[in-house]
Amino acid sequence: MADSRSAEPLLAFRNVRSGYGEAVVLDDVSFEIAEHGSLAVLGRNGVGKSTLLLTLMGFTQLRRGAIVWRGKDISRMAPHRRAQAGIGWVAQEREIFANLSVEENLTVASRPGRWDLDAAFELFPRLKERRLSKGNQLSGGEQQMLATARALMTNPALLLLDEPLEGLAPIIVEELVRGLRRMITEEGTAVILVEQHAEIALSLTEDAILLERGAIVHRARSQDLLKDHATLDRYIGLRVAEAKV
Question: pTM of the full predicted structure?
């Protein structure tokens, strides 16, 4: 995999201020992610993590700053155009098609590229076993795998993941994390990962930012932050000894 720091940024947030209606949630947020890069976005509930992803996709009111994608300002671009430009999004609600089969969910919006049906089933073998099952017949963990694989089938240059491990049983978490690790480290998929399981998020990514009250209060290499128990305890309220997955 190419050095994610050697090229110009794939994506840049530049002094972004955004929110909903009159409410400002993100204030003066700036960060970059390079081609094949991976970024963990951490913080307590309600600090703006999901809003960061929604802003990137164009679902909030951008009050100031710019979102630059491959050198082009996409701040005013419609959400569906951002998806067409190569930004994939797995929402916290998963939003799979309940009445379509697993295979139909995967192929309905697929685009040519590395990720096809065989690749998706190789990444998540459980989905191959359930390929004829309807979306509403899957467990929560299987639905998360399906939502992730469906986003990959659009062959995005960047994949946004919003709390993919929330509420899942430990054995399903392990299976999903294996797939995510392969996707990031072996396939080189660029990822922005919002996740409450800080130790897992940091074990999967290269870089990390910590949000507090809508602002970035700490930046670090993920492996360095994983060892920085004091900072994690201060901003997340979670003491992390080491990544276990």
Answer: 0.90
